[in-house]
Specification:
It is built from 22 helices and no strands. By secondary structure, it is an all-alpha fold. The chain has two domains: 306 residues, no CATH class; 92 residues, no CATH class. Helix 5 packs antiparallel against helix 6, helix 18 crosses helix 20 and helix 19 crosses helix 20. The protein is globular.
Length: 464
């Protein structure tokens, strides 16, 4: 009895210490909050239009006419911001212009605290995943601390970007898929479909994850005849729960804009990626240094490459692939209108990729390296090596449960390396699963040192 009481006291002390650290880190982030810019400004503008006009629109509010509906951004994250605004009387009465002024950012703290709470929900979900995979209470609490106090996750909570919601949904989907493939419960198939739908309505790229998950379930259907009945019903429920919300939003866009897609914007992103394929050999070499987050590599970059070489990679330079793509987007919009510009730019980008397919494959390497830098070079290397190594091992062992849990993150990293410019921000939703992977490596090392095996559940760090 005394041992059980001592454990509860220890857990209470750890959680209290964790909460204090989280509050301190959060207050530091809130003190340096800046007004929304670029993508963040778009999301806040849409949220305000939802609150004041009931319209998903990126148009700024005007007294003479209501904003015109649009499909420039996926709807889930602006809707979350709108709910946060509606829940706060102070934010509901705040002047629209105040949302975009640095001196007014203290008034937006309720929204930022909401996003910080999302980090904590994500951390406990990651802790749950670690428990399911290791059955180790110490390693589960370690995961909680690593995710809940992660500097990048706390920092991005101060910005109004969709990665905040995507991080929570990706972690929740990973946990749900783990439990789904372990238990084959029909309710979990439905919840997985709903979570994937929410994720696709937050970041449309994740809509392409659906066929991979169905393929994984079909592979299990082929290998285990005794489970075919449950899998058949589960796949059907998954597809219905995914298709209904996504189809409803796409139907809205078909009716209003004659476009069967979740949001615009894919054209300019693919155009940036296709233009990166045109880099020279010297620019290709420079990319590995330029895209790094290492101060040393950044410092020696000008010593080895001239300014003209670096300009193509520097997104602030008018000659960069980034600026060229956005200039093309503006030209197409002026000529054909925003409804057609995205499709036309996407067609041009696809043509450029197909013209140089091997260049595209080769450029994926530095773009993937760019996406790895979610932290400093050492932590990023540790996290991604743990994740990629673990994913390859569970694929080799045909462990469907572990593959299902890691597949969404593996898909995300591969997709953004292959079809986008691979901004480190795009990899930030993967951080919880990356930390889980590091903890899994620690678990395997502990088990191996304790009994010479790599089976989970034993070792010095296992729960007694």
């Amino acid at each position: 009895m005394r041992v059980a009481t001592d454990k509860k006291v220890l857990v209470g002390c750890l959680l209290t210490f964790y909460a204090v650290l989280f509050v301190v880190r959060s207050l530091e982030t809130l003190q340096v909050a800046r007004a929304p810019r670029y993508d963040a400004q778009d999301y806040v503008t849409i949220a305000l239009n939802v609150v004041h006009h009931g319209t998903f629109s990126i148009s700024t509010e005007r007294p003479d006419k209501p904003p015109w509906p649009g499909m420039d951004r996926a709807p889930a994250y602006p809707l979350l911001l709108a709910l946060g605004i509606l829940a706060s009387p102070g934010l509901r009465g705040l002047d629209t212009n105040a949302y975009f002024k640095d001196e007014s950012q203290a008034s937006l703290r309720p929204l930022r605290w909401m996003q910080l709470m999302l980090v904590q929900v994500t951390a406990f979900l990651a802790m749950w995943i670690a428990w399911e995979l290791t059955r180790s209470l110490p390693l589960s609490f370690l995961t909680l601390g690593l995710v809940g106090l992660d500097s990048q996750l706390i920092t991005i909570s101060g910005a109004f970007l969709s990665e905040n919601l995507a991080c929570l949904l990706l972690t929740a989907l990973s946990l749900c898929l783990l439990l789904t493939f372990r238990t084959l419960r029909l309710a979990l198939f439905g919840l997985s479909g709903a979570l994937l739908a929410a994720l696709a309505l937050t970041r449309p790229a994740y809509a392409y994850l659906g066929p991979l998950l169905v393929a994984l379930a079909c592979a299990r259907w082929l290998r285990r005849p005794q489970e075919r009945g449950q899998l058949h019903a589960g796949i059907l429920i998954f597809l219905v729960c995914f298709s209904v919300p996504v189809g409803a939003w796409m139907g809205r866009n078909v009716v209003r804009f004659q476009k069967a897609r979740i949001a615009n914007g894919g054209g300019v992103v693919l155009d940036i990626r296709s233009r990166l394929n045109l880099m020279t050999v010297r620019q290709y070499e420079a990319a590995f240094l330029f895209y790094s987050q290492s101060w040393y590599l950044q410092e020696i970059l000008p010593d080895h490459f001239d300014q003209e070489t670096i300009a193509f990679l520097d997104e602030s330079n008018p000659e960069s692939a980034y600026r060229q793509a956005y200039a093309r987007s503006a030209a197409l919009t002026m000529e054909h209108g925003s409804a057609s510009a995205d499709s036309l730019q996407k067609k041009e980008a696809i043509g450029r990729i197909l013209e140089h397919p091997w260049r595209h494959v080769a450029v994926t390497v530095p773009v993937a390296v760019r996406g790895i830098y979610v932290h400093g070079i050492l932590f990023s290397a540790l996290m991604f090596c743990s994740f990629l190594g673990g994913f390859l091992i569970v694929c080799w062992r045909r462990d469907a449960v572990a593959v299902a849990a890691l597949l969404p993150s593996a898909f995300s990293f591969t997709f953004h390396a292959f079809l986008t410019q691979g901004l480190p921000r795009f990899s930030q939703p993967l951080i919880p699963i990356l930390w889980v992977s590091v903890v899994l490596v620690l678990s395997r090392l502990d088990n191996h040192s304790a009994d010479g095996s790599l089976a989970p559940g034993g070792g010095l760090l296992a729960s007694s």
